[in-house]
Amino acid sequence: MQNEIKNNEKIAIYTEDKEKLLDISKIAYERHASKGFMCRKKDSRYNGKFIKPWIECVTCFVINKSNNKVLVEKRATGEINPEELDLVSGHVKSWELNRIAMIRELKEEISMNGYDRTQLADKLCFLGKIDMDFEKHLEDDKKANLRCFATVYGLLVDDDYGIEAKDSAVEEIYWYDYDEVKQAIRQSKFRFPYVSENEEQYEKTFQNLDTLIEKGNFYISIEEYKKIYLSKKERGIVDEPGIYKRIVKSITVPDER
Questions:
Q1: CATH 3.90.79.10 fits 56-215, yes or no
Q2: Helix (H/G/I), strand (E/B), else coil: 100
């Protein structure tokens, strides 16, 4: 039943230059991801053209403040890139703010017992955006029919209490030194495609992550986030009641969406 619900969840499909085309079910997206599809959106410049779809995803560096270790997942058999190393990651549903999606993934994949959703909303720090085309991965065994605009977050935790592998997509979790994780990502040892096209995005994200670890935060104007919230609301995107109030108070950056 749970898998059936997940397969019927709606996700937004985009072109490579971030034009939204439509909302489709997750299972329909997985069919189109491998072979692409013909765009039938009449007001799009892609109408009548064959495209490979992009989606929005989120990923998070969960860092233990006591020892600067980063939580790393080992992906389960049957998932995209099985047994590969990953951060806490997942897709954004068509109705979600990216921050809401990240909170959901943290709860689903590693429990985060001891943290409620509003606490996570306050603690998550936006670090950057990375365009990831998994077909371009340098490692053949990590190539996949997945293209996503990834929003990257950082989350500082006091210790590893209440954090455990929970979702069926996660086989096991480990804690590795922060510098080791960065180097492993640069060397394509993670499932993420670190290639010349997105190297600058990665390195800027790493710089922001360094600041977060050094200073304990990485924030800018709350007014910018309110603009994002209002933009989403005007477009009719619904969200989970009760969390918006706290999230709008969170200080974050305008590119988060």
A1: yes
A2: helix
